[in-house]
Specification:
The protein is an all-alpha fold and 297 residues long. It contains 12 helices and 2 strands, in the order H-H-H-H-E-E-H-H-H-H-H-H-H-H. It has helices spanning 4-35, 42-58, 63-89, 94-115, 144-166, 168-178, 180-185, 190-215, 220-225, 227-236, 242-258, 272-296; strands spanning 134-137, 140-143. The termini are far apart.
């Protein structure tokens, strides 16, 4: 087993990635609450936004403006998809809704493969100004980007929970999660509420794409399928609780990275989201069955 000092850098990285998984999971939960759609294209939207940012910076655009383009791209694509296909999917079952967003993922992934095909050993990188500074924590050097990853996750989770609880729009989203039809009959502008959810989810996809492109890799495949970790966190929280989503995302990030320095299991660390989600869902299902059986007796 590695020593405690060898684990420390991976703990820092795990917390940073867990924060990004958390903000991504929060976006997925809010969208599901408002529309019933599991947005599988989240990672692809962020990946394409990051690649566009890379190309714009390489062409000479100011960094800050290119970052805003990434956020605008994520919001615009997701909002457009929601406004076009959202009404058609409103009364379809959950499997059809998820499959439809998988179609968007494949379209975006194909476009990225066509427009940003790597050739001749080309290496792309997207660096943020926060990479150049940091501080020492024990024997570990922590960058401001890692602090930003965790901090943004905490901020987004807290702000979203407060938004859903204390604002009219957030209350409308929670009401739609309970019963869409009754909410509409009460005079709630359902389409506007859905549009806000789609737009917010898309902007968060852009934020996640920028951070992950810096912390992991500027690679279409890697960034597209990192949504699996965020989706696992949302599923552990049963697509309901912001707080549980945040905790689950942090745990997934930590466990996934702490397996890396252990030679016997390092090659299986990518399975962490699947394993943790499966275990959590089995435990929750068993607890629900036991509760029902007690109530019946």
């Amino acid at each position: 087993m590695p020593s405690w000092q060898e684990f420390q850098p991976f703990i820092v990285t795990g917390l940073a990635l867990g924060g990004v998984y958390a903000l991504s999971g929060v976006g997925l939960v809010v969208l599901y609450q408002a529309t019933g759609v599991v947005y599988l294209a989240f990672g692809a939207v962020g990946a394409m936004g990051a690649l566009i940012t890379f190309s714009l910076i390489a062409a000479g655009m100011p960094h800050w403006l290119a970052w805003l383009v990434c956020l605008a791209f994520g919001g615009a694509v997701t909002l457009a998809y929601g406004m076009v296909f959202g009404p058609l999917l409103a009364r379809r079952d959950a499997l059809v809704k998820a499959t439809a967003t998988l179609g968007l993922l494949l379209v975006l992934f194909g476009a990225m493969d066509l427009l940003w095909t790597t050739s001749g050993g080309e290496v792309r990188s997207l660096t943020l100004p926060t990479d150049s500074g940091g501080f020492s924590l024990g024997h570990v050097q922590v960058t401001w980007t890692q602090v930003l990853g965790l901090g943004v996750g905490v901020l987004i989770a807290g702000a979203t929970a407060a938004f859903l609880r204390y604002t009219k729009l957030g209350t409308a989203m929670r009401a739609m999660a309970n019963d869409r039809e009754i909410t509409a009959t009460l005079g709630v502008p359902v389409r506007r509420v859905e549009a806000a959810a789609w737009l917010g989810c898309g902007v968060l996809a852009g934020v996640a794409g920028l951070l992950l492109a810096d912390m992991v890799a500027l690679d279409a495949t890697t960034l597209t399928f990192l949504v699996i970790s965020s989706l696992a966190a949302a599923l552990i929280a049963r697509l309901r609780s912001i707080a549980f989503t945040f905790v689950a995302a942090i745990v997934i990030g930590l466990v996934q990275n702490m397996l890396v320095p252990i030679p016997a299991v390092s090659s299986y660390n990518d399975m962490t989201p699947f394993v943790l989600a499966a275990v959590a869902l089995l435990v929750l299902a068993r607890r629900q069955v036991m509760t029902r059986s007690r109530e019946e007796t």
